[in-house]
């Protein structure tokens, strides 16, 4: 099983940018579709973005045009670049091997208005 460790969260102001990183273990990392989810207080966890093994991407409607997802298979890393952040982006962000119940510990992103 791939182990996932997120980093890069923090407190920022609306309009700022932030980049989250996810370090994955395992030699089969490149074969997985990887994803970022987020969960705000009192809300269900939602898909933010995912990236396939070949690099194809898909984004949730709330972040389209503002967030990008990328991966570096040589380093076993997945990134989430978040631009033009809004207060409603405040949540715990989780890295995930898409389609599997496999999660990191999460990283808190807080956007102040």
Can you describe this structure?
The chain has 113 residues and is mainly β. It has strands spanning 4-7, 10-13, 18-24, 34-39, 46-51, 57-59, 67-72, 77-82, 91-97, 107-112. A hairpin with a 5-residue loop joins strand 5 and strand 6 (57-59). The chain is globular and about 40 Å long.
What are the key terms here?
113 residues; four-stranded antiparallel β-sheet; mainly beta; 0% helix; single chain; 10 strands; six-stranded mixed β-sheet
Query: Distance between the terminal alpha carbons, to the nearest Å?
Result: 39 Å
Kindly state the number of beta strands: 10
Query: How does the overall form come out from the CA principal axes?
Result: globular
Strand order of the largest sheet: 2-10-9-4-5-6
Instruction: Show unreliable segments.
Output: none
Content of β-strand: over 45%
Count, helices: 0
**Helical content (DSSP H or I, runs of 4+):** under 10%
Largest sheet: 6 strands, mixed
Structural class: mainly beta
Gyration radius, to the nearest Å? Answer: 13 Å
The pLDDT mean sits at 96
| SSE string, helices as H and strands as E | EEEEEEEEEE
């Amino acid at each position: 099983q791939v182990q996932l460790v997120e980093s890069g969260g923090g407190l920022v102001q609306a309009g700022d940018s932030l980049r989250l990183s996810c370090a994955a273990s395992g030699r089969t990392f490149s074969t997985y579709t990887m994803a970022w989810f987020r969960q705000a207080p009192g809300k269900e966890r939602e898909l933010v973005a995912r990236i396939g093994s070949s690099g194809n991407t898909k984004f949730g409607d709330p972040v389209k045009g503002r967030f990008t997802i990328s991966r570096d298979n040589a380093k076993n890393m997945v990134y989430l670049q978040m631009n033009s952040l809004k207060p409603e982006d405040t949540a715990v962000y989780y890295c995930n091997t898409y389609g599997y119940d496999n999660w990191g510990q999460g990283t808190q992103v807080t956007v102040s208005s």
